[in-house]
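Worked Example 4.2. Consider the chain below.
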Amino acid sequence: MVMPNTSLSSSSFALGVIVGLGLYAVMGESWKTKKRQDKNTAAPRRFGSAIKLKPEQFGRYTQLHDAGWPGVLERMSKSNIRNFTIFYHKETSTLFSHFEWIGHWGRGQLTEAEEKALFDADMQAIADDPVTQVWWTECEPCQEPFSQWPKGAPPPSQGGVGNWWAPLVCLNHCGHWATQYGEGLRDPDFVSQNPDGKTTVQPNALE
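Applying the procedure from the previous section yields the following structure tokens:
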């Protein structure tokens, strides 16, 4: 995956993904205390982005994402990303990603600048991560950015800076928001999409 990048530059998971564009788990001394604090937890910050998937690369892309590398998933979690999801629209061969960021949770009242600094630091940690950098080199050949990425510019894995994934504007959010998340890095109910049932494995050298 390559990730969204809001101030940084990212690839597919982080997404390839960095279109870098909360779970402040305020843990109380007791479950009762935690529950009371959770009621006052700010909503996670939500980010969406899009990029074209080269039609002939659908097999390779799903091979990569049906079992994302543990190092990539762990880094995203440490960078306060939750509920990272990628959707595919076959007719236009477009990938849509969504994630929630909780780096502001448990930090009290923050100014916009303070919150942005926290987000930027989390996204930079993803961009600097060696496993994620290799992951991007696998994902980027499958993708074709929209016009926000300068034509001919190198991709994020080669030093390109900007929004590899095009940022999307949230027009609506209905319903409740999460105040806590599960512990797992993978959804046990996720349905694999690779036509041949293939997956990839994180190289041993990166473990």
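The beta strands are 4-5, 18-19, 45-53, 81-89, 94-101, 143-144, 166-168. Residues 1-40 have pLDDT under 50 and may be disordered. Compare this with Example 4.1 before moving on.
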